[in-house]
From TrEMBL:
This is MPN domain-containing protein. The keyword Oxidoreductase does not apply. Pfam families: RadC, UPF0758_N. It comes from Ottowia oryzae. Keywords: Hydrolase, Metal-binding, Metalloprotease, Protease, Zinc. One of its GO terms (biological process) is proteolysis.
Length: 225
């Protein structure tokens, strides 16, 4: 069944215009971007298969252009470019929000932003959000990769980057490729080590965000800071 075969009020475009984007499923929204399916496969079916291939919307949002190329019907550059562009727009929109508002006023946006950046990485990545005196985002930098511990994340390097950005505060962030976002004892020790080291420079650690596919945890919200 093609979109034209659906009743008018069930077609994604008409449904969106009449009832708003929130009324559409993930597959329907994706179908609007894809526009057409392939031979023997309607665009709605294709959209659902794409979502299933990446484990849902969160996985798709972290897919690269090369990842998308492996999906039947996305071998051409146009559709892949549009999907990657949507992801980049989402990142930029969240970054813009964090650059204009103090991060503690938008904790959900901080977690969303970090998750978009790190949530689907196959390896562990440690990043730092550097903030100005009003706790607005200056920059996010990925500083370390691999298994994280007190010995593999160097406070000196974090301090040097904080001085470079003239940061007044930071939000620490890393991902758990395993999917669980529960903080480990090593995460807690590392957080306290960096908090102590950066305090000597009068730089506050506001939070440590741990992300995984589709979820995020704030150590500050858990009372672990």
């Amino acid at each position: 069944m093609t979109l034209k075969d659906l009743p008018p009020d069930a077609r994604p475009r008409e449904k969106l215009l009449a009832r708003g984007a929130g009324a559409l499923s993930d597959a329907e929204l994706l179908a609007l971007l894809l526009r057409t399916g392939t031979a023997g496969r309607g665009v709605l079916q294709m959209a659902q298969e794409v979502l299933d291939s990446f484990g849902g919307l969160a996985g798709l949002l972290h897919a690269s252009a090369d990842d998308l190329k492996r999906i039947k019907g996305l071998g051409g550059s146009a559709k892949r470019a549009e999907l990657v562009a949507v992801l980049e727009l989402a990142r930029r929109a969240l970054a813009e929000q964090l650059r204009t508002q103090p991060v503690f006023e938008t904790p959900g946006a901080v977690k969303d932003y970090v998750q978009l950046q790190l949530g689907q990485r196959p390896h562990e990545v440690f990043a730092v959000l550097f903030l100005d005196s009003q706790h607005r985002l200056i920059a996010l930098e990925e500083l370390f990769r691999g298994t994280l511990s007190q010995t593999s994340v160097y406070p000196r390097e974090v301090a040097l980057r904080a001085l470079h950005h003239h940061a007044a505060a930071v939000v620490l962030a890393h991902n758990h490729p395993s999917g669980s976002v529960r903080s480990s004892r090593a995460d807690e020790v590392l957080t306290q080590t960096l908090k102590t080291a950066l305090s000597l420079l009068d730089v506050r650690v506001l939070d440590h965000v741990i992300v995984g596919p589709g979820q995020a945890l704030s150590m500050a919200e858990q009372g672990l800071l």
